[in-house]
Design goal:
Shape: globular
Helix content: 25-40%
Bound molecules: 5'-deoxyadenosine, iron/sulfur cluster
């Protein structure tokens, strides 16, 4: 048994992490033959991408994906810790699974992802959820075959969570959700330790992947006909700092651009280390999409300081304006937290003013959620729940006005859209995303899926655009 440990998870060192290539031991290759699995994924793109790895590991062991949890032999919850409601969803699901297991006692139930890295959660699973057969963390996905093999034999709960990462894995198998758009990890972990955030504990120290491994992966995607990669990390702007003296995200973006992949996105960026060089590179290369996710979190410099964000409102705005000036048509999206424990009405009004000024193209707004083990958890909370909801509602109204204004600027314009798929509500309606990451609905033939077509925008709503195809030539190829 290995348990999560926050004291160890908090430590940041200078050590480099050995890199190994994933190889499935022969003795596990038949373990899943004739059996099915079902994975429920919560949270961010990083978790979705981990699920792509987990699915491929399971399938290399002979398991087949089940459409329905009720009939599968292995049920796995890949969980998220970021806010309390993510916890509640996972625990609610465990409640349903408990009933299922009463009728089908032989199914194997596992929990992985960020919640598995939390001391309190694992303790609770051990004490109150004996029907959960196994738990593994974010640092040891590669141990899954062995863990499954152990629990297939033994009847005791298997908890294998590494408090901190000890090695990096390459050649991880992947079962990608899409054959046109791919996630590519470039850096794991986060060293920023924003005072409200659990991620530095659950995802560990910043570890960049080697540039040659990233480029090899993207080159293979180009060869396989992929149209878009999203370079992933909790803080992509820290890319390379732990590996190279003079190779940064800007350099990596240039190299990825040269692979010829039609579209490159990256997320998430911390404003603190977003360099001018990055802005230049985005502006220079056509296949780096002019769309930046730049979480601000608050419009009050006082709150930003307490959040440990390392920039003031003024510094954020300087960067924001620079991006808007230097990158033609750039869209900027953000994350905002309301109700941080010490946030006053005055602080909140500053956030409203910033949102009004910036007219973000998209935004995710949240009510502060106490995360056990983080510094902000210990701060005295000044605001009632009711007031926090009121603030969220007021902020959302202003954000929505910004989205609509930004969408309206596209009315009548012709924009490149990567066609994603068929809109579920109508057989003739397709949907896709512009270079600036706006959702567009339009009529068209299924043969357009996976292509980049020119669409004229005919109607603008708050969260989406309507359009008509004016050229179905694959504009980027
Ligand atoms: N409470 C509310 N929102 C949070 N986020 C991170 N931690 C918390 C928390 N404790 C938000 C931040 C971050 C996004 C991914 O989630 O806005 O950018
Ligand atoms: Fe959390 Fe801050 Fe790291 Fe983002 S940068 S993952 S908010 S600690």
């Amino acid at each position: 048994m290995n348990l999560p440990n926050y004291k160890e998870a908090r430590v940041r060192g200078k050590e480099s992490f050995p890199i190994e290539n994933f190889v499935l031991d022969k003795k596990y290759q038949e373990l899943g033959r004739g059996k099915t699995y079902y994975i429920k994924t919560y949270g961010c793109q990083m978790n979705e991408h981990d699920t792509e790895n987990i699915k491929a590991i399971l399938e290399s062991m002979g398991y087949v994906e089940a459409e329905d949890m009720n009939v599968s032999d292995v049920i796995l919850l890949n969980t998220c810790s970021i806010r309390e409601n993510a916890h509640n969803k996972a625990f609610g699901m465990l409640g349903r699974i408990k009933h299922l297991k009463e009728n089908r006692p032989n199914i194997l139930v596992g929990l992985c992802g960020c919640m598995a890295q939390e001391e309190g959660v694992v303790k609770k699973i051990g004490e109150d959820y004996p029907f959960v057969n196994f738990v593994f963390g974010t640092h040891n996905l590669y141990d899954l075959p062995q863990i499954l093999s152990n629990v297939s034999i033994s009847l005791k709960q298997e908890i294998e969570v590494l408090a901190k990462p000890c090695k990096m894995m390459e050649d991880f198998p992947l079962k990608r959700v899409s054959n046109k758009k791919a996630y590519v990890n470039i850096i794991y972990g986060c060293d920023k330790f924003c005072t409200y955030c659990i991620v530095p504990f659950t995802r560990g120290q910043e570890r960049s992947r080697r540039r040659e491994d990233i480029l090899k992966e993207v080159t293979a995607l180009v060869r396989d006909g992929y149209m878009e990669v999203t370079l992933l990390g909790q803080n992509v702007n820290a890319y390379g700092k732990d590996l190279y003296p003079d190779y940064s995200l800007a350099n990596l973006l240039e190299d990825v651009s040269r692979t010829g992949i039609p579209r490159i996105r990256f997320m998430t960026s911390h404003p603190w280390d977003f360099t001018d060089e990055m802005i230049d590179v985005i502006q220079k290369y056509d296949n780096i999409m002019p769309s930046i996710h730049l979480p601000v979190q608050s419009g009050s410099s006082r709150v930003l300081k307490q959040m440990g964000r390392r920039y003031t409102k003024e510094e954020y705005l300087t960067l924001f304006k620079k991006m808007r000036e230097r990158i033609p048509n750039v869209t900027i999206s953000t994350d905002i937290i309301v109700g941080f424990p010490t946030e006053t009405e005055e602080d909140f009004n500053e956030t409203l003013m910033l949102a009004k000024f910036c007219q973000f193209d998209n935004a995710f707004s949240f009510i502060f959620s106490k995360r056990e083990g983080t510094p902000a958890c210990k701060l005295e909370d000044l605001t009632t729940e009711e007031e926090k909801h009121r603030r969220l509602h007021q902020l959302n109204q202003i954000l929505n006005e910004g989205f609509l204004a930004s969408n309206q600027r596209l009315l009548g314009k012709r924009v490149p859209v990567l066609v994603d798929g068929v809109n579920e509500t109508s057989k003739t309606a397709l949907f896709g995303y512009t270079d600036t990451n706006k959702l567009v609905n339009f009529d068209g033939d299924c043969s357009l899926i996976g292509k980049i077509v020119l669409v004229e925008i005919t109607e603008c709503k708050t969260w989406s655009l309507d359009g008509k195809v004016v050229s179905d030539i694959n504009v980027n190829v």
